Amino acid sequence: MYILGLESSCDETSAAVVEMGEGKRRILSNIVASQIDVHRLYGGVVPEIASRAHIEAVSKITREALDTAGLTLSDIGAIGVTAFPGLIGALLVGVNFGKSLAFANSIPLVAVNHVHGHVSAALLENPELEPPFLALVVSGGHTSVYNVKSYTDYEEIGATRDDAAGESFDKVGRVIGLPYPGGAALDKLAYEGDPKAISLPSPALLGDNLDFSFSGLKTSALNYINQAQQRGEEINRADLAASYTAAVTAAVSKKVAKALEITGARHLVMAGGVAANSHLRREVGKVCEKKKVSFTCPSLSLCGDNAAMIAAAAYYEFLQGNFADTALNASACEP
Ligand code: KG4
Ligand code: ZN
User: Is 0.85 surpassed by the pTM of this model?
Assistant: First the structure.
């Protein structure tokens, strides 16, 4: 069946058509209208501007997604829309558009958890991937570990207690003058620096838990920059990028190893915008190799926010009969 996915939880408006079922997991179109250039002027996402930009883009890109797929709404078996978590105003645009489209055309509507969507990006490229598996979602809003029992049953077994990995990359990137969002630029810059040059605290919480705290790491990096400025010294940005990336990578790898031990999982999926980080992909890959656990990470274009992943997650909610109706509301947090 063909599923139309809609995504508007943050700063990308996206519409996609995927074909799912009967052994198929195929992306027919995946249109992403990024607002990054607008938010870059402010150094971060401005929620009100994001909502308005979603309103301007959503109809056009939905039409584009259908046209690229060579389909019309009458071919669509379900509409999946991101309903939570995210920026409330931004989410409401997608949810209300999805509701209108679904009910005007008598198409079943499915509400999708954005985080489950990120994990589903990996399913699209790997037809053989089946739960149970362990999933790590690292994004601008999440750093969470899940025991994925089925496509619709996710048990959170670890999470950040404060900032997300991507959020902290972006903050440090901004302070050292990198354009928003700083994550991808820090990734590149880290190759030019020494990962041992600056001593920074680990964002992995001590003990037998699978939790993180990125606020201490972020504050240490900001203190390092401020103290250098007060002394009138220029900081080595590449060394900071390398040391910061190494601290994040080591912490995530450590918790992944622990999560694999605790759960005995035989497969790991790493997803979300920060899963595009080349250092993290390499190091988490090494952990899995050492533990003889298979490892799947979506290709770079499917790590960031996109609607194909939302449509894929919607398919499994659809199979469970988890339909939404006109009472569907968006929520900033996971219910
Ligand atoms: O998943 P995503 O597109 O949006 C959320 O759901 O939050 O993730 C966006 C985050 C941003 O913080 C961005 O800086 C980060 O992903 N990111 C990266 C890289 N590419 C994007 N972080 C580290 N290294 C990268 N290569
Ligand atoms: Zn996301």
Answer: yes
